[in-house]
Write a structure and sequence with these properties.
The complex is a heterodimer of chains A (178) and B (114). Helix content of chain A is 75%, strand content 0%. With 178 residues, chain A is mainly alpha-helical. The chains are: A mainly alpha (178), B mainly alpha (114).
């Protein structure tokens, strides 16, 4: 099919590097691995540049490949859930507190403890602001499955955040000698 | 259902917190440089592969062309051999015929002398 839009690789990198990197980071919980995945995704884009038909197609393609490559990497490395964040801060110098609130930081950490399919659905929903239909297309998964992952993931995250908040208050009160 | 789907409602405070926590992170400054470097490093490899393919195609064409020329040469040699054989056989037939004729004449001459 003929299309007028001519993709500019460098411009696509400029526009989408943060999106691809953030998706990989939230999925793997490992900054170094996320950088590697982002590089691989863009090099794969370079190989398929002739098939990209529009800016929307490029964004969709990048999201999809970033999620697939992240899932592959997770399968290979067997995600170690929360420990990954400790490792990430120790080895890659990520300073989570710089930007986010303490609860935001904790939510981001707790997200990595969810099963990968639920994590993928929540990341696409709350980072990329996609609808369940768009998530379904991106992950190539049935809509009902995506909705189920969103509901279960959110419920699980809420429960974990609630437990964390209670523990946080208890520790604070102990520290104050209450 | 145990709880309502979150996507059809106004996001609650928890979802709002989650949305803020999951804002996109800025990619490392070195990421683009590394991508462009790896891309540039891959370009010469593409050219090498292209030249290798061209060389392989040229060799294949030469082998096929040489084979065809050799086949034509062999066929031509065989045809020449066949023609030479035919000529020899014709010469032998003529010689045989002449010898038979001479033999008949000699026999007739001998009968006349007797």
């Amino acid at each position: 099919m003929a299309h007028d839009w001519q993709p500019d690789f460098e411009q696509l990198v400029d526009e989408h590097q943060s999106m691809v990197f953030s998706l990989a980071l939230r999925m793997t919980g490992d900054r170094g691995l996320a950088e590697e995945i982002a590089q691989d995704v863009f090099l794969e884009l370079d190989r398929h540049l002739g098939k990209i038909e529009s800016p929307e197609h490029a964004r969709f393609w990048l999201r999809r490949v970033a999620m697939n490559r992240s899932a592959d990497a997770l399968r290979r490395r067997r995600a170690r859930c929360f420990d990954l964040w400790v490792e990430m801060e120790d080895h890659h110098g990520l300073r989570l507190e710089e930007r986010s609130s303490p609860l935001g930081v904790r939510l981001e950490q707790l997200l990595t403890t969810l099963p990968p399919p639920q994590r993928a659905a929540l990341v696409l929903r709350y980072q990329e602001d996609l609808t369940p239909e768009e998530i379904s297309a991106t992950l190539d998964a049935p809509l009902a499955t995506v909705k189920s992952h969103l509901q279960r993931g959110l419920k699980l995250l809420r429960a974990k955040a609630h437990d964390h908040l209670r523990e946080y208050i208890r520790v604070k009160e102990q520290a104050r000698g209450v | 259902m145990e709880f309502e789907p979150p996507m059809n409602e106004e996001p609650d405070e928890f979802e709002q917190q989650l949305r803020e926590a999951l804002e996109r992170r800025t990619a490392p400054l070195s990421l683009k440089r590394r991508i462009m470097a790896r891309r540039a490093a891959r370009r010469p490899q593409k050219m090498v592969v292209l030249w290798q393919r061209l060389a392989a195609a040229a060799v294949l064409a030469a082998v096929l062309g040489g084979g065809a020329a050799w086949e034509a040469h062999v066929r031509e040699e065989r045809q020449r051999g066949e023609a030479a054989r035919e000529q020899v056989l014709t010469a032998l037939r003529i010689t045989g015929h002449a010898l038979n004729q001479m033999n008949r004449q000699l026999a007739a001459h001998s009968r006349d002398e007797e």
